[in-house]
Specification:
alpha/beta, Rossmann fold, 274 residues, disordered C terminus, 7 helices, binds S-adenosylmethionine
């Protein structure tokens, strides 16, 4: 989140200076349910408040839609709202616009909001979850193609990589189409997601390591009760670290942060702006 902060601020600044909305309508997709859920809103409010003071503008109102899947524990988030409002009142005093927090449960692979109703759509570490497990992960004879893995792994056969990639393209097309209909003209979107470096040989890819390790652990546990193949097939999940697609690069400013997962050091970070 801290690495994404300069991009968030730059995006908000552009958005605010373009239109000076009376009420900024925002959405966080895949908001989850922890004390961190409201951190993004606090950052947005602080930044817009500082910017409008510099420009001597009246404080705007904020409406924040928190989205996650239907089974997300929104009640936990709701319980944090009174202290969030209280802290805002204490720190900002009367000289501050009102803030309204709303939940919008639903699947972000489809429409969530009315046409042209949002100024800013944000999502952090959520869009790399696919809408479902790819359908075609079994051979013509019905045997599992991704045997022994719970997700796309370095040793998964090519056909499994293709199945995940096809689903990624389908999901992202629907996701971007839906969001483009929901944004007001001149609105902005910002998504932070895990990806992989397309030029790295899959066998040397480090992003898969975490999930492969989890898969190996589950497999070992399941082997103990001789349910290996059945269980691991059922556990195949919908997680995909995608390479940036060329089509997306044309549409958006994409910033890539390369990270060495095996031995993270400060000098391993590089940011590219395209
Ligand atoms: C790793 S959490 C990210 C939480 C938070 N945004 C953050 O950055 O700390 C991913 C969240 O995305 C949600 N999610 C995954 N697929 C989704 C979908 N199709 N529609 C809505 N939410 C989804 C999950 O339920 C989960 O709460």
């Amino acid at each position: 989140m801290s690495r994404a902060k300069p991009v968030l601020q730059e995006t908000l600044r552009e958005l605010y200076l373009d239109s000076f909305p009376e009420c900024l309508k925002l959405a966080d997709l895949g908001c989850s349910s922890s004390p961190n859920t409201l951190l993004l809103l606090r950052e947005i409010i602080d930044y817009i408040d500082a910017t409008r003071k510099q420009l001597n503008k009246k404080e705007p109102m904020f409406q924040m839609f928190l989205n996650d899947l239907f089974h997300n524990d929104f009640n936990t988030v709701f319980k944090l709202i009174p202290s969030f409002y209280e802290e805002l009142r204490r720190e900002k005093g009367g000289d501050f616009g009102q803030c309204f927090i709303v939940a919008m449960p639903g699947n972000f692979y489809g429409r969530l909001f009315p046409d042209h109703s949002l100024h800013f759509i944000h999502s952090s570490y959520s869009v790399h979850w696919r809408s479902q497990v790819p359908a075609n992960l079994v051979s013509e004879l019905g045997s599992p193609l991704n045997k022994g893995h719970i997700c796309l792994a370095r040793t998964s056969p090519r056909s499994v990589h293709e199945a995940y990639l096809d689903l990624f393209k389908m999901d992202m097309t629907l996701f971007l189409k839906s969001r483009s209909e929901e944004l007001v003209p001149g609105g902005r979107m910002m998504f932070t997601m895990i990806g992989r470096n397309a030029s790295v040989n899959l066998l040397e890819d480090q992003v898969s390591n975490i999930w492969e390790l989890l898969g190996m652990t589950i497999s070992d546990m399941v082997k103990e009760v001789l349910l290996y193949t059945i269980f691991v097939c059922l556990c195949t999940n919908a997680y995909l670290c995608a390479c940036p697609l060329n089509a997306l690069c044309e549409l958006f400013r994409i910033r890539l942060t390369l990270f060495d997962w095996c031995s993270p050091k400060k000098e391993d970070y590089k940011i590219f702006i395209t």
